[in-house]
Amino acid sequence: MEGVFDRPKFLTSSPLLAVNAGRHNERPELRHVSVVVKMEVVEKEKVVYMWGYLPGAMSQRSPLLSPIVVRVPQQGVGVGNYSWKDVCGGGCGFAMAISDSGKLITWGSTDDLGQCYVTSGKHGEIPEPFPLPDVISIVKAAAGWAHCVAVTEIGEVYTWGWKECIPSGKFLGESAEDKEVSDGQSSFPAQQVSPHTQGSRSTVGAASGIEPRGGEDGAKRRRVSSAKQSAESSSSGDEGLSALPCLVGLNPGVRIVNVAAGGRHTLALSDIGQVWGWGYGGEGQLGLGSRIRMVSSPHPVSCIDSSSLRKDRAMGLSHGCPGPEGQGLRVPGNYIKRIACGGRHSAVITDAGALLTFGWGLYGQCGQGSTDDELSPTCVSSLLGIRIESVAAGLWHTVCISADGDVYAFGGNQFGQLGTGAEQAETLPRLLDAPSLENMHVKVVSCGARHTSVVTGDSKVFCWGWNKYGQLGLGDVIDRNIPSQVSIDGHVPTNVACGWWHTLLLAESPT
Length: 511
Prior knowledge:
Blueprint: E1 16-18, E2 29-31, E3 46-52, E4 64-69, E5 74-76, E6 80-81, E7 84-89, E8 95-99, E9 104-107, E10 128-129, E11 138-143, E12 147-152, E13 157-162, E14 169-171, E15 200-201, E16 222-223, E17 242-248, E18 256-261, E19 265-270, E20 275-280, E21 294-301, H1 310-314, E22 321-322, E23 329-330, E24 336-341, E25 345-350, E26 355-359, E27 374-379, E28 388-393, E29 397-402, E30 407-411, E31 426-431, E32 442-447, E33 451-456, E34 461-465, E35 480-486, E36 492-498, E37 502-508
Parallel strand pairs: 15-16
Antiparallel strand pairs: 1-2, 3-4, 3-37, 5-6, 7-8, 8-9, 9-10, 11-12, 12-13, 13-17, 14-17, 18-19, 19-20, 20-21, 22-23, 24-25, 25-26, 26-27, 28-29, 29-30, 30-31, 32-33, 33-34, 34-35, 36-37
């Protein structure tokens, strides 16, 4: 989110009219006085708060039940400190934010007990720049279950994490004579990164919680375990080696402006509103029209075409705009302006405010009125006529915001993550009518694995859903099925970003 500044203050004066004394018969002489216009721009100090499960953020590695301020990293002796620009959530057990100077700041994971499920590279206990090349400046970043992705100011994309999430590209430090990209190894310079190349192991699962556990100290491997299954996984017992940061190979001239990371898939949005996808697509979350399991290079995702309302046409619905003769209904809009990734599903918004979803539909998280998977981007027809401005996706749920500031939620609701006051799943978007949000204009939304957070136009923060690790910031570990306000004293919240089991908040000093 861009920084917020005070309104400029101007010193102005009108031309002065003076009569030349002693020459009363002559016309008055108009004298223009030069006035210096001074623009006063004062940047407000930005602060990042964190709460939830960030094992390395506290020495005792216990959950943070209430918001605490994140320490600003130091740039070096005599250089000063970094300043915050935005928050990016982070994946499982670590956090990400962006500094004003374009550095990706990460923190919160641990190495010795294997309590976070990341990726190669460093996400230490103390916030510090992630070891990417000094010459690049990061403007957007996201993290999924097992990988991270970041966008530079010139529209390039870097990604790292489990090999299966990483597309073909050039690994940092690799020359033409090095090993092929596909084998995932790299001679990344030691001064840029000191990675812990690790395997990751998981078991398969859906309804049960994902609980942290210790790993093998010697190999410092990070594992995922649960009583039954984990939500995102490779096949049971497999180990996928982590890949070092690499530059994603895109078509010439493609400039990316935003990215979203799901369980094991990635979406990228270009400056002309084209969506690109790669990674795992077994449930249709890449929107390619099939259950292709792995896409190893970025592919364009066709979002706005006549097929997107195919179901509505078959049911005789009249939403949408007429397409060319013989092609039925067309999705409103000409390009995509927002993207979001959930555990195994995705959502995008057109410039006309139409919401499209695709991927896993078991809990109704595609909002199509069924539990079917959607293999191609499909318009959420029940929201046509309502201009959708923002969308976020969790493990099994989706939440979006209209231009009027209303909140609509659908999908899994086992922990109250929809905020409806119940625990019943919703296969169609449901307008939240919670008393706490009455007359509130919601501006920002973010979803963790099973919790949701929003920021309103008057800078209030609300959270709801799963709270086992304090990810709601309410001072306890009690789940909430309605929006509950988080107390932030002394600063004005502007943006929120949820990790899978934690929440980050960007705030600024008051006026």
